[in-house]
Amino acid sequence: MGCRFFVVRLLLGVALTSSAVHAADKLNSNERRALSARAADRLARQDLLSILMPSGRFPKGMVRQVRSMWFITKSNGTSVPGLCARDTLILNYGPVNAPVDTDTYNYEGEPVAPFGVEASRQYRFVKPPTASLLDWEDRHPLPSIWRGECRALKDDEDGGGWFFAPDPETAVRAWLAFRVAVAAVQAKPALVQPCETYRPAGKKLDCKATLAILDDLDKLNEVETCPALAGQDCFKIDVGSFWITVTNRASADGPTPADVEAVKIEEYIVVT
Questions:
Q1: Shared-domain flag, residues 124 and 185
Q2: What is the DSSP string of 107-130?
């Protein structure tokens, strides 16, 4: 009888908690602002936990002492159709007692405690971007954050087209610049100085063939802007294990192969 009573109370508590969380999801801005400081803090913490994917076990890796725990949010939509985003939250840990003698310090046995967080945002194209997406926000209503094309993504997978970018528009402009650079170099290899031989995926290829094999959104790791002269745009694209720097004439409507002025290819080695 006591065990059955405990189970009923437990199920009732779970149901009530679920109902409370579900009800909190429907609170509007005025209702949230009307909460007491304590209630608002509790709700915001619940909201934060609700969007974090399970983290799993503390990582081992090559470091003897636990340094961090990584959390990834569920994917959501951005202001650009076909472009999704997710955030990574890193909880940092440090030793409670700093090592005095590194030869005798028990790295695994000494306690560690959290002291700070880091956050970063990744993007992923679920549709290849086109120039029609440039300045989309100025010409169209914002698409839904909760749209199915993004919510259906597998959030726990690494790579697979997830990449870092300063913002959605830079993500679009950088990939468009890379695509036209690939086309431009096929017609005019001299745009790459020097046009050397590279080994993407273990194959010995020249600069034209190297860029062609890297033209794959699933290989995209990061994009960023770089310094450029007036009237120019410059983007650095990390794709595969290469940094591709593209300089082209600035264009509000997006660059064409004729706008490409220089392409630089830098191969790097990934150390795991």
A1: no
A2: TTTS-EEEEEEEEEEEEEESS---
